[in-house]
Write a structure and sequence with these properties.
alpha/beta, 2 helices, 81 residues, four-stranded mixed beta sheet, elongated
Length: 81
């Protein structure tokens, strides 16, 4: 499931309340790669919208998203407990 999607231009987005698991982030990156392969082009925009990240995964999640050129919108600036 992809929460926000357009095929032309290729825009892919994930919206989640609280990011509790790094698996949520890595699965989203895999979905991006699958859709890029399916449509034969790089995505024009990718973004990940969340209320916040659990502090245990925040740094790794942000690193993975940044490495994959995903724009992050976290509504809560502080880490969640």
């Amino acid at each position: 499931e992809i929460d926000i999607f357009s095929s032309d231009p290729l825009i892919i987005g994930e919206v989640t309340a609280i990011t509790r698991s790094i698996d949520k982030v890595t699965l989203f990156v895999r979905k991006i790669r699958f859709l890029e392969k399916l449509y034969g082009k790089s995505s024009d925009k990718t973004f990940f919208i969340t209320y916040g990240f659990l502090k245990e995964i925040r740094d790794d999640a942000l690193r993975i998203l940044e490495e994959n050129n995903v724009k992050v919108y976290a509504l809560r600036a502080r880490d969640l407990e």
